[in-house]
Write a structure and sequence with these properties.
287 residues; alpha+beta; 2 domains; three-stranded antiparallel beta sheet; 4 helices; 34% helix; 31% strand
Length: 287
């Protein structure tokens, strides 16, 4: 917080050094999705399901597409059975308990001289052998469980799910098509309930823009919405003598689309207006 405050203070001083604006100026920008994801898979295979089309609205966790995993599913069933079969572990445990009991009995009798040292050594060897078999059974059982987790992880990689609520912007595969090395992106998802726009603002206007500031957004249809300044760059771009300003615009009604050319109108007055030359406004008929 201290660093940002100091940076903004330096920007203001730097702007004052260039003088004050004397006339209105529009700084161009473009509306973009607030968040965007390019979703794909490194797995190879054929798509058995592509469940979305461009323009579909999806929710977090929704399955968008999947690769054919019939062979892997069959393998998983075998691995699952092995991972749930603890019979070898239980059998090894019974053998270990019996071997230990016999060894301890012979050891006690040996103290009375009723058995030879050789007989005691044999029972001790049986006990240690049973202990080794029990350790081995436990290790194999743990490996089987680990293999099931590995198979499940592979299966998960073959299913593409939505990481967030959003709108499908691009679909590059259809059902039945195989993955292509030169096309790793299967689906492009964007969050459109909020939009953002970035503007490279001349440094002389730095004193007019503050984080959290509400800006009036005017569309070419005559409607107006509000935008909020959510980020101001900490430094000035030397070649252009501008600083980046990012504005968030509420789009829960879905009237705006990415790709709209826009501009911030800046002037020496206290009011700064955000105007938009809209090329893509969704009508009620399209909704």
């Amino acid at each position: 917080m201290i660093r940002r405050t100091q940076a903004l203070a330096l920007l203001v001083i730097f702007g004052m050094a260039f003088g004050s604006p004397t006339s209105a100026e529009r700084v161009p920008g473009c509306l973009m999705p607030f968040c965007e994801w390019e979703l794909g898979t490194h797995e190879q295979g054929r798509f058995d399901r592509v469940l979305v089309e461009v323009g579909d609205q999806v929710t977090t966790g929704a399955v968008l597409a999947s690769l054919d995993s019939a062979d892997l599913q069959a393998h998983r069933e075998t691995v699952r059975i092995n991972s749930e079969n603890d019979a070898p572990v239980r059998s090894a445990m019974i053998q270990l308990q019996n071997a230990k009991s016999h060894y301890l009995k012979v050891k006690q009798i040996r103290q009375n001289g009723s058995v030879t040292q050789l007989e005691l050594d044999d029972k001790e060897a049986e006990y240690k052998s049973a202990e080794a078999r029990w350790d081995s059974a436990n290790a194999e059982f743990a490996i089987a469980k680990s293999q099931l987790q590995e198979v499940d992880a592979k299966l998960a990689k073959r299913i593409i799910v939505a990481p967030s609520d959003g709108v499908i912007m691009e679909v590059n595969y259809r059902e039945g098509e195989c993955t292509r090395m030169n096309e790793p992106v299967v689906v492009r998802l964007a969050q459109l309930n909020r939009l953002r726009a970035e503007f490279d603002v001349p440094v002389i206007y730095v004193s007019q823009i503050q984080p959290g500031q509400q800006l009036t957004v005017s569309l070419d249809t005559g409607t107006e919405v509000q935008g909020e300044v959510i980020r101001i760059a900490d430094e000035v771009d030397r070649p252009s003598q501008t600083f980046c300003v990012e504005v968030m615009i509420d789009n829960r009604e879905g009237k705006l689309l990415p790709g709209v050319n826009c501009s911030i109108e800046l002037s020496s007055g206290s009011e700064t207006r955000f105007t938009s030359k809209s090329r893509a406004v969704r009508s009620q008929k399209d909704k």
